[in-house]
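Narrative of activities, Objective 1.

The group set out to show that a structural description can be obtained from nothing but a protein's sequence at a throughput compatible with the screening campaign. Below is one input-output pair from the validation batch, recorded exactly as produced.
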Amino acid sequence: MLKSLSLGGLIGGLVLFAWGVVSWMLLPWHLATLEKFKDEDKVAQALTANATKSGVYLLPNVHKHEPGMPEAKAKKAEAKGKKAEAKRKKAEAEGMKRMIQGPFMFAAVSLQGTSGSGAALPIQLVTSIVSALLATWLLTNSTLPGYWPRVGFLVVLALTAGVICHVPDWNWWGFSARYPAVAFAGLLTGWTRDGLVIAKVTSR
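Output recorded for this entry:
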């Protein structure tokens, strides 16, 4: 059991990491799903002027009070009579109208820039190994006989993860259909390769 977990996690993680490098850095399909602003400098200036800190932003955000107001204070202010409640509901209704009419944005904003692939790659490697380790643990605790059913188990596992992670991004946050479609394709391709390896090294 321990040997299977070690082999599945390490070898499977390396295979998964290698596929991720190829998929994102050598193949054009992921980057082709990312759009470009007409004037990036103006957008960057607007973000710098209006984003109070790095984080995940929603535009329009009908659920957040004005920047700088503590949540407890905001709730206390809202509780001051029917007038405050009516004002809050009106603001939310106007915000929802703007959200439907557009533009709408759900984005991660990093005001300090990014550390680049030099720092991200080691983290991704660890993530791949941990993912393969967990998948191996699930596989070794299954009762599936034979090589191909075990490969299929890991492919279905990846499909399940894709549905859980990528479909809500498309459904709720306005991700283009191409983005989750390519993400699904990359996920299934990578985990099919990983399934072939992990099922082999964990064979009984």
